[in-house]
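Support request, please re-run this one:
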Amino acid sequence: MDEINIGTVILDLRKQQGMTQEQLAEAVGVSPPAVSKWETGASYPDVALLAPIARALDTDVNTLLSFAPTLSQEELLAAVKEVGKLAERDGPAAMEHIRTLTRRYSTDTQLRFQLANLAMGFPQLYGWPDETKEGAWNYAEQSFEYVRQHGEKKLWPTATYLLASLLLSRDKLDRTEELISSLPVMPLAVQTLYAALYQKRGQPEKAWEQARMQLLSGGQAVLQALALLAASDVPDASRALDTYGAVAEVLGYPPCLLNIQLAAHAMESGDKEEALQKLRAVVRELKGEVEQAYPLWSTVPQPGDSYYRTLARMLQNDLRTDPKFQALSRDPAFADILRQLNPET
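Re-run finished. Output below.
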């Protein structure tokens, strides 16, 4: 059984079920030290115990023995699409389907990685209730850890980064710092080298595309840093906000991203009318009432497409839950803004 690493499978499935070693031991009629020895590889369960262990862990013997299939790329995309459809209308059902897929394909790290991504982002996107949100984030945390330990090497940096982002949002700061410290520092992006390579090969179109990608991703990092500075309680915070606007305009980022930052800043300054004015500007942009220019985007987002629908839905949920905007909760103008942000309106 050493080749199938049954101890690791038992450990992972037990954690997914939220069970302690004592609870699993009681369920299958052994001592807690016996479960500990299985999970560390010091010993293996008797064959007669495999079925009871599988039942206790809500799985089957094949999965327990690591004889679990993996999905093809087409099947993986179909599974992710199905979860997405469920998530929009029923968060608990989506999470149940995610857990079912995880049990069925327990060793498929590509699937686990994609499902963790969905579980991390959907609660905010669709405004799931707290209980469902916490369950989704617990799943994402466990799954990113699993992918870091058992997944392909190329998945490790992204899984680590996403896990650190998730834990930061949950105020698990010490673990977040450990993960950030483990990430390699890459001061120069690969796109820069590709751009130079294509330029030397006489392929200016490819060089332009790589440089554009680098500028967009780098610009996004700069804007995130400026947004953090603008939100901080320091004398130069307003200068950071001005710089944010200048950089966003030069790079051609949607003005609504700046106006959202300005609205939050106005609320922190106690200027409700200014905040409402900026939020109205966001609504006008999302409805296509403002002419836009995106000089670095290969495909310009159009009002009503998935980019704007997703942005509107996320903003609507954030405005409802962000403490900075609670002072506007009873304002009819704010209620009208929320109504207009509904993608179905």
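The two ends are 58 Å apart (CA to CA). The chain is about 70% helix and 0% strand.
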